Automatic annotation (TrEMBL):
PANTHER family: CYTOKINE-LIKE NUCLEAR FACTOR N-PAC, OXIDOREDUCTASE GLYR1-RELATED. Residues 169-285 form the 3-hydroxyisobutyrate dehydrogenase-like NAD-binding domain. One of its GO terms (molecular function) is oxidoreductase activity. It is an enzyme of class 1 (oxidoreductase). This is NAD(P)-dependent oxidoreductase. SUPFAM superfamilies: 6-phosphogluconate dehydrogenase C-terminal domain-like, NAD(P)-binding Rossmann-fold domains. Coiled coil: none annotated. It comes from Bosea eneae. Its EC number is 1.1.-.-. Residues 6-158 form the 6-phosphogluconate dehydrogenase NADP-binding domain. InterPro entries: 6-PGluconate_DH-like_C_sf (IPR008927), 6PGD_dom2 (IPR013328), 6PGDH_NADP-bd (IPR006115), HIBADH-like_NADP-bd (IPR029154), HIBADH-related (IPR015815), HIBADH-related_NP60_sf (IPR051265), NAD(P)-bd_dom_sf (IPR036291). Keywords: NAD, Oxidoreductase.
Length: 305
């Protein structure tokens, strides 16, 4: 490996932990920090050096953050001492899904410190983070992107540079809007087919082998074969992202009727106790609204009685 930069990683959660471990396995000198000591211990098992404090991780050449939401990013970057610890000329790579508004505030704080700030939200989920098959959208200083690219290539399969400001934030929200609306449509489509007495597997085969058979449809149809709703990305997380999307639309003075309607779908799922279930639980909500129970997959392939 030709890269000699030291890396700090802040946030060893569902995404941060497997990515940091993958970078350690690739030979990078990486130190990780999380408020949860158990996560640091898991990272150490994966070859990541432990950082005793946030400041210890932040003093490295290139610092990555992987955080759950705007509130935590603000606490770390704007009031948590991140930039106090980072040295002038270092690079901050922020990989979370957050609003353009908070990201712009982080950009201002980085500029005051002389830190190059890259917005680099990743697309994919925790189930594939360890495989290197994530993608990332990046905006910020082009020179910083070029410096970080060899590292990004060790945990993503594709990297797209989009501009100097918040372009990457809007790209990630645009992608997640498509995913959310597609999941809502998939739920209603499957239940409509069930009402027409199609077998459970038959409708999944129809969707995957038709013009709508996108990679997401193929991926989710596989787990739906056995009605596996264990979360790769939860309903609650999707609702949070839809709130970001709607907020970005309001700031841009545009209407997002599909986003707003889909947010109501996920609100209903959370209200029914499905907040931690996978976002494709839209199928179960559609079944409930249609008065259907779960199909019996062991008899007649799930046809209605």
């Amino acid at each position: 490996m030709s890269d000699t930069h030291t890396i700090g990683w802040i946030g060893l959660g569902k995404m941060g932990l497997p990515i940091a471990s993958r970078l350690a396995a690739a030979g990078h000198d990486i130190a990780g920090f999380d408020r949860d000591q158990r996560r640091i211990a898991e990272a150490v098992e994966g070859g990541v050096k432990p950082a005793a404090t946030l400041a210890d991780a932040a003093r490295r050449d290139i610092v990555f953050t992987s955080l759950p939401d705007d509130k935590v990013l603000a606490a770390v970057a704007l009031s948590g001492g991140l930039f106090d610890a980072m040295r002038e000329g270092a690079v901050l790579v922020e990989t979370s899904t957050v609003s353009p508004t908070i990201s712009a505030q982080v950009a201002q704080a980085a500029a005051r410190r002389g830190v190059a700030y890259l917005r680099a939200p990743v697309s994919g989920n925790a189930a594939i983070a360890h495989t290197g098959n994530l993608t990332c959208f990046v905006s910020g200083p082009r020179a910083a992107f070029d410096a970080v690219l060899p590292i990004a290539q060790d945990f993503t399969r594709a990297q797209k540079y989009l501009g100097e400001a918040e372009e990457a934030r809007f790209a990630k929200l645009a992608v997640n809007l498509m995913i959310a609306v597609s999941a809502a449509m998939m739920g209603e489509s499957i239940v409509l087919a069930r009402k027409g007495n199609l077998a459970w597997q038959d409708i999944l085969d129809v969707l995957t082998n038709s013009a709508v058979g996108s990679p997401m449809v193929h991926y989710k149809a596989k787990s739906l074969e056995t009605r596996d709703f264990s979360p790769t990305f939860s309903c609650r997380q999707m609702a949070k992202d839809l709130d970001l999307i709607i907020g970005a639309g309001q700031a841009a003075e545009m209407a997002l009727p599909l986003a707003s309607l889909t947010r109501e779908t996920y609100g209903a799922l959370i209200g029914r106790g499905e907040g931690e279930a996978d976002f494709i639980s839209t199928v179960r909500l559609a079944e409930w609204l249609a008065g259907l129970g779960e199909p019996d997959l062991d008899t007649d392939e799930g046809r209605l009685a």
